[in-house]
C-alpha cells in the first residue's frame, strides 16, 4: 500500500491513529505537502519575516492563529499536533525528543508559558507526482527511503534573530531530462519551484553527496545529474541556530498532507 | 517625457526632488512597482499575516526591519519616506493629510511613540509593460489618468484585527485579447497575477463602473470587456476598517518603483 491515490483526509486519519508512521514521500498524488514549525508567539514575527524574505526555501502555505491547533485554509478538520507521522521537540535549540503525537506538549506549553503559532511551509514532495507524470524518475520513491537533504553554503536573508544557510533536497535526474525537471517544478513556486542548483554539489558547499545531513542516501546512476531544490527543512536549521527556548517541528521527510491540490496552488 | 524607459533610481531621484509628483503608471517599463503601508510595530504581525493569507491582493515584495526607512532587497539606497510621489497620513483610520515627503512625520512618530514597519506590496502597474508588448492596450496610460479602482464584495481572509473585502483595478480589454491578458498576467503572481474577475462588474459588487472608488474613470470602447485585477489598495482599505491609531501609505496610483525586474520576480 503506497497511498499514492489516497485522499489526504484519509491518510491524515491513518497517521493520527498510528497506522502510518513513516515518511510521506509518494503519498496523496496531486496534493501539496507541508513542513511544520511551531514556535512561541514572541518569536513568530521574526520567522514570518524570514519566510517572506526567503520564499524559495520557505514558501508559506498557512500560518495559524495564535494558540490554534488547526490550519483551516489548507486542511479543514485537521489537528496540527496529531496529523504528522513524526515530530521533533526542541528545547534551547537541542532536539530533546521525537514523538508521533505532540498534543499534550502543545497544551502544556500553552497552559504554563504562552501561546504557540504554527507555520506550514511548502514541501518538494508535492511536485514529485508531476515529475513522475513527465516520466522523470524520483529515486527515493523507487528505493523506498527518505529524500536526501544537505546543508549548503547558500546564504539566506536574515530576519531578526534568524539567519543561516539553505538546506536542499536532492534528486538524481537523467541528464536529458534535467531541463524538463526544471520547467515542471518552476511552475510550482509554492512548493519550492525550480532547482536552486544543478550538477556540482561542491559549488554549494556539499562535500560528500553520499552522506546527506538529513534523510537517506540514494543511488546516482551513470548518466544522471544531481539536482538540488530548496528544502523546507531550512527554517528548522535556521531556527536551531538561534537556540529558541522551545520549538516543535515535523521530523524531516514526515510531512503534513494538505487538502490543497497542487494545480490550484499554482494559481493562488 | 513619459519615463517609460527611465531607470528606477533616476525616477526615484526625480520624485525625491519634487520633479515628478503624479501617478507612476507607465514609468520604468520592466521594473516592479509597489504599494506602501507603514504601520506601528504592534499592528505589524496582523498585517503580515493578512498579506500571507491574501496573496492575490497583497503579494509582499519586502518588509522593512523595524524602525528602518529602507528596502535593501528591492531598492538599495532608497528612502521609503521620500521616494513616492504622494503619501497619505491616517490617524484613527481617517485620512488627515497628503504629503510628498513624510520623513519628518516618520521620525517624529518614532521619537515619541515607537517603531514603525514598512510593507511593500506588488502593484499591477508592473505588468502593464508586458500587456503593451503583447499589443494589449492599457487605457489609463493612453488617456493619461490614474487607473480606476473599485471596492468589491469579494471577501478577504481575516487576520487579527484586519478584515474586509478586496479592492480591484480595472482595465478595459478588447474581447479577443482577454485570454492573452489572463495568460500574460498569470505569469506574474508577485504583482497580482491573473485577473480576479472578467466581464460582469455587478457579480463582484460594483454598481457603477463609471464611478471608481479610487483613481479616475476610463473609456470602455465597443467590443471591450472590463477586466478586474486584485489591487494593492486592498490592505489600505482593510487597514482603515480597523481604525489604527496611525498609518501612512502611498496615495493610490502613486507607487514605489523598485530596482527589481519583473522577469526576475517571476522566478523568485
Which percent bin holds the helix content of chain A?
A: 10-25%
Radius of gyration of chain A: 17 Å
CATH superfamily membership of the largest domain in chain A: PSTPO5379-like
Structural class of chain A: alpha+beta
Look up the CATH topology of the largest domain in chain A: PSTPO5379-like
What's the number of structural domains of chain A?
A: 2
Instruction: Tell me the greatest interface.
Output: A-B, 19 and 19 residues
Q: Could you state the oligomeric state of the chains shown?
A: homodimer
H/E element sequence of chain A: HEHEEEHEHHEEHEEHEEH
Which percent band covers the strand fraction of chain A?
Answer: 25-35%
Organism (chains A, B): Lacrimispora algidixylanolytica
Enzyme class (chains A, B): lyase
Family (chains A, B): Belongs to the D-glutamate cyclase family.
Pfam family, one (chains A, B): D-Glu_cyclase
Task: Give a brief description.
Two copies of one chain form a homodimer. Chain A has 268 residues and is of the alpha+beta class. Chain A contains eight helices and eleven strands.
Amino acid at each position: 500500500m503506497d497511498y499514492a491515490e489516497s485522499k489526504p483526509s484519509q491518510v491524515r486519519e491513518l497517521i493520527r491513529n498510528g497506522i502510518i508512521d513513516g515518511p510521506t514521500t509518494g503519498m496523496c498524488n496531486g496534493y501539496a505537502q507541508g513542513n511544520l514549525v511551531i514556535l512561541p508567539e514572541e518569536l513568530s514575527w521574526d520567522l514570518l519575516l524570514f519566510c517572506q524574505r526567503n520564499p524559495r526555501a520557505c514558501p508559506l502555505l498557512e500560518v495559524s492563529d495564535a494558540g490554534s491547533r488547526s490550519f483551516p485554509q489548507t486542511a479543514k478538520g485537521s489537528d496540527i499536533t496529531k496529523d504528522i507521522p513524526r515530530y521533533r521537540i526542541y528545547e534551547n535549540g537541542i532536539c530533546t525528543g521525537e514523538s508521533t503525537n505532540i498534543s499534550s506538549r502543545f497544551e502544556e506549553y500553552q497552559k504554563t508559558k504562552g501561546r504557540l503559532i504554527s507555520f506550514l511551509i511548502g514541501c518538494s514532495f508535492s511536485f514529485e507526482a508531476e515529475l513522475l507524470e513527465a516520466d522523470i524518475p524520483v529515486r527515493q520513491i523507487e528505493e523506498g527511503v527518505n529524500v536526501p537533504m544537505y546543508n549548503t553554503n547558500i546564504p539566506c536573508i536574515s530576519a531578526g534573530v534568524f539567519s543561516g544557510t539553505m538546506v536542499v533536497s536532492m534528486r538524481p535526474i537523467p541528464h536529458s531530462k534535467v531541463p524538463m525537471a526544471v520547467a515542471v517544478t518552476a511552475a510550482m513556486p509554492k512548493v519550492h519551484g525550480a532547482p536552486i542548483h544543478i550538477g556540482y554539489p561542491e559549488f554549494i558547499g556539499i562535500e560528500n553527496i553520499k552522506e546527506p545531513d538529513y534523510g537517506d542516501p540514494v543511488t546516482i546512476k551513470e548518466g544522471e545529474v544531481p539536482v538540488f531544490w530548496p528544502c523546507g527543512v531550512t527554517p528548522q536549521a535556521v531556527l536551531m541556530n538561534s537556540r529558541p527556548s522551545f520549538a516543535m517541528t515535523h521530523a524531516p521527510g514526515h510531512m503534513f498532507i494538505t487538502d490543497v491540490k497542487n494545480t490550484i496552488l499554482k494559481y493562488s
